[in-house]
Design a protein that fits this description.
homodimer; mainly alpha; 10 helices; DNA-binding
DNA sequence: GTCTATAAACAGATAGAC
DNA sequence: GTCTATCTGTTTATAGAC
């Protein structure tokens, strides 16, 4: 009686007249759940609160997702699809191997800088992204199968792509241990401004982290990246 | 009837014969709570589970801490005290202003490198630190007054100290916006290896993150730091 | 498909015996 | 100080009316 499938038929089996009404309820529940799971955590969020936030009925969660756990998985799939889109727009085709493009070091470095800036914009500035990032961070804390979706759909391909750009920019082999770690450090320094948001705000004396603050962070991250790339290039 | 005070009198008001028995229960509860709050989160952890892990009675939580919330605060205080000790050993007197020491840039840079290496050792390698870091990260997600203790006791003084070293190493003013952000990026790149532990392990093909893996991370972080410091110094 | 009523389990807090 | 029993509220899941 429940519908656990991610994709759904438009011709519903039910007798509802307006097609898509069920889908709207479904999406409203997912968006509300991401918001609340991100803000308060999975366990701390009751299905009642989710239903209220989505202006839907409590029973609809069981109907659409089979239960709270199914809703969590649906959230992960929703997020993976959304981020793939954002990342794809910033990096081009993620499945493309940058080494095939024969990029000049300067061009590869420029693309890395652009990727970092996009990451800052998404992580640090965008308020809508807050709950999404929080959701992912919480899932990372106690890995469930929900994280598999996000890892395989987003993390792995994006990281691999960045490693390819790193090779083109520095000469370090893309899949070497050093390169993979280095790319993680580049990403990590940005992610911290989301995770450590509260201590950062206090220490920086920032009331809120808006566009001005985000561009200050981006400027430092850019300088860091350039300095590191240059040092790696000179190494040979 | 409850004892909310952090420090306690050794001459207990109760009639127990062995002095310190209560204190042992108290500490066992705190350690168990840190472990479970870190692993599963505050809301997901029941007081019953904590009592079982500490081999103590459920009622003892109410007795010693007034309730679950009081136990959370006690955990934060316990952690703040412990980390201050670790940080103090690595950095010397945290309250000392490094600019008073008139350090040569090379010496200041060396101290920063050492601090980063200590941070990697603590964050990435030490398994006992896992739950502690997880606990803090979870508290950061939804700031309560528990985080105030850790922020004021550890975060702020350590960050300030590192900023002082940064000034001595680069010439950038210690309390400038740029320096404070830069120090956060240095710390953040390390912290990520704890938060993103699972995706890192997968992408790196690491079954576990042991001493070998930690030193690989430390090597990259060290190179990053040196490259950035050098670029800042040359800037003038 | 949506909504209500209810079941069954479990939470944290508390009173009081020992 | 420790431990048990119990109160009160809340949780998810489910059965069935509409």
């Amino acid at each position: 009686m429940t519908r656990d499938d991610f994709l759904h038929e438009t011709g519903s089996a039910g007798g509802s007249r307006r097609i898509g009404a069920a889908e709207r309820t479904r999406e409203a529940l997912i968006r509300a759940a991401i918001r609340l799971f991100g803000k308060r955590g999975f366990d701390a969020t009751s299905t009642r609160a989710i239903a209220a936030e989505a202006r839907a009925n409590i029973g609809s969660i069981a109907y659409h997702f089979g239960g709270k756990e199914g809703l969590r998985t649906a959230c992960a799939q929703y997020i993976a699809a959304m981020i793939s889109q954002v990342a794809g727009r910033a990096l081009g085709d993620l499945t493309a191997d940058p080494s095939r493009l024969q990029l000049a070091p300067e061009e590869a470095a420029a693309r890395l800088v652009r990727a970092i800036e996009t990451l800052v914009g998404f992580m640090v500035a965008r308020p809508e992204a807050g709950e999404i990032v929080q959701f992912i961070l919480r899932e990372l804390g106690q890995p469930t199968d929900a994280i598999d979706v996000i890892y395989n759909g987003v993390f792995e391909p994006v990281h691999r792509h960045l490693c390819g750009l790193w090779e083109a920019a520095t000469g370090d082999p893309a899949e070497s241990e050093y390169t993979r770690i280095a790319v993680f450090t580049m990403v990590g320094q940005i992610v911290y401004f989301r995770i450590g948001r509260e201590p950062v705000k206090r220490r920086m004396g920032w009331g809120e982290i808006g566009p001005r603050e985000a561009s200050a962070v981006a400027a430092v991250a850019r300088d860091n990246l350039k300095a590191i790339l240059e040092a790696r290039r000179k190494r040979t």
